[in-house]
């Protein structure tokens, strides 16, 4: 028998079921899921409304190339449009976040005919060769160099250096509104404003990567709306199809016809089952006012994490239900002890514990999470 290639740390736990904010292992043990596969299960595991839509679609039609219309795709674009700020009229369908970034950059390259992509320290944009080229951390990229050569990294959150890094050769500036993998680092309003102004001044496009922040997690549908700064293109992914693979780039109307037939494509993009799931997810986001719930429960979780009594805890970062607890020590040592206390969490950067729970997390869940974190930190203190 073949085996699955191993490039992940394994925890020896077999997950057999997921429902809303919880997952269960094969011994029947329940966990509060603040990992959600890096934010994918933001609308909960097996959310009944999405399950229903997928079930119906699975009986009807799975596979249809983009050349043909399908009711599933029509329903998706109708629902998803209601989540878009005015002026963002075109959606490019992909299957993953990294592909969403790739297509956004391809649009910028074709529109401007310039080579250079500007990205920032601590960025993460994906693991295909293009998006990896604009991902900062050596641990992801070093083994694969040389990557796409025309990349300049500016300093994240240093607005007065933006004019030095964005030039006449720049096709696009790519930035996360809150860096996820890099440490749950929110961009400052001054920084995003400086990027917008400088991109406009130099004729480059501003691409905001919302793959982790987007679709309600930070308390707004799109995190850039919290800043009053608008990109030319933004990306989304992770939770948009309720757990099925999706990625998309959303662009201003004027970029809708940028590609000639053949210049872009993707076999699985717009898959009918994924579209049915994404239509149901988009509708649910609006009908249940998910961003407002993320904001409210995020405030609860932030407060609980802030009041953790441990000298290893430094501060809480992030927005809505995208939160990091910065520690004085490396964070990865706490993932397994948290599992043992019934909490799935993530790390970000080197010394941040990251929490990306589903929006329906309750006050009781928050208490469970905060108590578990306090226990594992205090155990580490006691161990010296
Ligand atoms: N951009 C950002 C901001 C991300 O956080 C991620 C995934 N962590 C990606 C892009 C890549 O998404 P995917 O893994 O779906 O390709």
From TrEMBL:
Function: Involved in both the arginine and lysine biosynthetic pathways.
GN (gene name): lysJ
Binding-site list for pyridoxal 5'-phosphate: 97-98, 124, 209-212, 267
Keyword Transmembrane on entry: no
InterPro entries: Aminotrans_3 (IPR005814), Aminotrans_3_PPA_site (IPR049704), Class-III_PLP-dep_AT (IPR050103), LysJ (IPR037537), PyrdxlP-dep_Trfase (IPR015424), PyrdxlP-dep_Trfase_major (IPR015421), PyrdxlP-dep_Trfase_small (IPR015422)
Compartments where found: Cytoplasm
Pfam family, one: Aminotran_3
Pathway(s) where this gene product acts: Amino-acid biosynthesis; L-arginine biosynthesis; Amino-acid biosynthesis; L-lysine biosynthesis via AAA pathway; L-lysine from L-alpha-aminoadipate (Thermus route): step 4/5
UniProt record similarity statement: Belongs to the class-III pyridoxal-phosphate-dependent aminotransferase family. LysJ subfamily.
Record note on cofactor: Binds 1 pyridoxal phosphate per subunit.
Lineage, highest ranks first: Archaea, Thermoproteota, Thermoprotei, Thermoproteales, Thermoproteaceae
GO CC terms: cytoplasm
GO biological process annotation, one example: L-arginine biosynthetic process via ornithine
HAMAP family assigned: LysJ_aminotrans_3 (MF_02084)
The species this protein was found in: Pyrobaculum calidifontis (strain DSM 21063 / JCM 11548 / VA1)
Protein name in the entry: Putative [LysW]-aminoadipate semialdehyde/glutamate semialdehyde transaminase
């Amino acid at each position: 028998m073949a085996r699955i290639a191993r490039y992940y740390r394994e925890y020896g736990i077999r997950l057999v079921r997921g429902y809303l904010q919880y997952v269960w292992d094969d011994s029947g043990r329940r966990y509060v899921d603040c990992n959600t596969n890096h934010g994918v299960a933001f609308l909960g595991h097996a959310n009944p409304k999405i399950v229903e839509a997928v079930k119906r679609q699975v009986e009807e039609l799975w596979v249809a190339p983009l050349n043909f219309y399908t009711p599933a795709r029509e329903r998706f674009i109708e629902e998803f449009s209601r989540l878009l700020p005015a002026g963002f009229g075109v959606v490019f369908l992909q299957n993953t976040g990294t592909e969403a970034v790739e297509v956004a950059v391809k649009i910028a390259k074709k529109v401007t005919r310039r080579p250079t992509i500007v990205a920032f320290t601590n960025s993460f944009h994906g693991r295909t060769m293009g998006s990896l080229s604009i991902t900062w951390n050596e641990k992801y990229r070093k083994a694969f160099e040389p990557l796409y050569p025309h990349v300049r990294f500016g300093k994240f959150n240093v607005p007065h250096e933006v004019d030095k890094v964005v030039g006449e050769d720049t096709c696009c500036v790519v930035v996360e509104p809150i860096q996820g993998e890099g440490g749950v680092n929110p961009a400052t309003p001054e920084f995003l404003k400086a990027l917008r102004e400088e991109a406009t001044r130099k004729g480059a496009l501003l691409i905001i990567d919302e793959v982790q922040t987007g679709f309600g997690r930070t308390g707004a549908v799109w995190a850039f709306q919290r800043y009053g700064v608008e990109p030319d293109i933004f990306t989304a992914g992770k939770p948009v199809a309720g757990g099925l693979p999706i990625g998309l780039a959303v662009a201003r109307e004027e970029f809708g016809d940028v590609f000639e037939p053949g210049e872009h494509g993707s076999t699985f993009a717009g898959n009918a089952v994924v579209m049915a799931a994404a239509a149901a997810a988009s509708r649910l986001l609006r009908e249940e006012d998910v961003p407002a719930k993320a904001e409210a429960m995020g405030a609860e979780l932030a407060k609980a994490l802030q009041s953790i009594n441990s000298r290893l805890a430094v501060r809480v970062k992030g927005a809505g239900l995208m939160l990091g607890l910065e520690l004085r020590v490396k964070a990865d040592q706490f993932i397994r002890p948290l599992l043992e206390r019934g909490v799935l969490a993530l790390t970000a950067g080197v010394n941040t514990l990251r929490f990306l729970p589903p929006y329906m997390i309750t006050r009781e869940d928050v208490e469970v999470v905060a108590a578990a974190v306090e226990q594992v930190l205090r155990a580490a203190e006691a161990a010296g």
